[in-house]
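Severity: low
Component: inverse-folding endpoint
Summary: output formatting inconsistent between runs
Steps to reproduce: submit the following structure tokens with default settings.
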């Protein structure tokens, strides 16, 4: 640890006045701080002194313009932290080559404050490249898939009942499946890369209504009835579109894996500060050895059945990711031959 900025010429307790035990503790802490890859800057409780570890010192050339600006920014943020205002700030330094430094401040129990400092320039660049990649790949894949679908539909119309028409029908089915997989993969990639970019207050009753509305026609086609048993209005913080997608995926699965004419029950309740949304079906159920794996990407219990129902193997991975982003989780209880109940749990406000 080094002095980053010192107003007094001597620390409050000169080192030679420390007991041997305190001195050893201090030098151990100091060595540990210097070994950390993250920058750490500590301000004394009265705001008169700042210490920094090696990682924080090596961010900028000492006494360069950026270094002076960095120390001033730290000084300001740490003083705010001493007054109780802690938080995370991103600051840009440099003209031609911009470097972004993230500074997270915390208050210390002895009255001082600390800042965790990290150069996140590289991470931001990788995030940008990933987001661009998803946008590009979305265009590059969807355009030819759309064109092949259209051509196959035209071929079927032109060929009537011939063998070629049957083959064109197969092309159309496969391409439809490919389209669904690409859409799910891109949804998952977007959720992973963008994270929870929106944080708004959401009425859960509307989320359920919208999710049920999306699946209604598929359920009708199978004569499956979706019954919303209880839908009290609660609020959660998050991304509405993502939550509709998560609940929609659970209801979609329940309908997909249910027999003709069965009932799918949706129930919303509050338990210990959490909003629980359960989707229960009387479908085939899932054997215990598969239960822990159904949330993995492309994991299917019964490959043939899942493909037959148009599954991509990504739906539950999407649900889990959305649940985690909202500080929640998703669980399943199931019995073979009886049915399954998936429960999404999100902190309620
Ligand atoms: P898929 O698109 O194949 O349905 P999911 O990720 O949504 O992919 O689900 C993974 C697997 O979990 C499915 O292939 C299926 O075997 C099983 N599964 C999901 N939901 C249910 C359900 N409600 N009843 C029985 N099995 C289910």
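Observed output (run 2 of 3):
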């Amino acid at each position: 640890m080094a002095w980053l900025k010192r107003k007094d010429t001597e620390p409050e307790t000169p080192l030679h006045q420390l007991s041997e035990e305190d001195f050893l503790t201090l030098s151990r802490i100091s060595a540990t701080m210097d070994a950390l890859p993250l920058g750490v800057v500590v301000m004394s409780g009265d705001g008169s002194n700042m210490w920094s570890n090696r990682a924080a010192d090596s961010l900028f050339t000492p006494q360069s313009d950026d270094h002076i600006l960095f120390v001033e920014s730290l000084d300001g943020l740490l003083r705010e932290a001493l007054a109780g205002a802690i938080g995370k700030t991103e600051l840009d330094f440099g003209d031609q080559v911009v470097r972004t430094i993230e500074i997270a401040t915390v208050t210390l129990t002895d009255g001082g404050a600390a800042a965790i400092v990290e150069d996140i320039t590289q991470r931001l660049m990788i995030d940008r490249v990933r987001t661009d990649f998803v946008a590009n790949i979305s265009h590059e894949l969807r355009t030819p898939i759309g064109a092949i679908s259209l051509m196959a539909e035209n071929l079927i119309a032109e060929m009537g009942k011939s063998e070629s028409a049957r083959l064109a029908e197969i092309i159309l089915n496969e391409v439809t499946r490919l389209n669904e997989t690409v859409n799910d993969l891109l949804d998952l990639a977007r959720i992973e890369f963008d994270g929870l970019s929106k944080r708004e207050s959401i009425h859960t009753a509307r989320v359920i209504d919208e999710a049920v509305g999306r699946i209604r026609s598929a359920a009708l086609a199978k004569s499956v009835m979706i019954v919303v048993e209880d839908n009290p209005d609660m609020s959660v913080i998050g991304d509405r579109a993502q939550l509709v997608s998560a609940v929609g995926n659970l209801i979609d699965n329940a309908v997909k894996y249910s027999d003709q004419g069965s009932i799918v029950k949706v129930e919303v309740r509050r338990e210990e500060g959490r909003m629980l949304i359960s989707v229960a079906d009387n479908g085939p159920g899932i054997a215990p050895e598969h239960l822990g794996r159904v949330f993995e990407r492309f994991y299917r219990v019964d490959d043939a059945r899942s493909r037959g129902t148009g599954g991509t193997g990504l739906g539950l991975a999407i649900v889990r990711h959305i649940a985690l982003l909202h500080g929640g989780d998703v669980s399943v209880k199931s019995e073979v031959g009886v049915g399954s109940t998936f429960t999404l749990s999100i902190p309620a406000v």
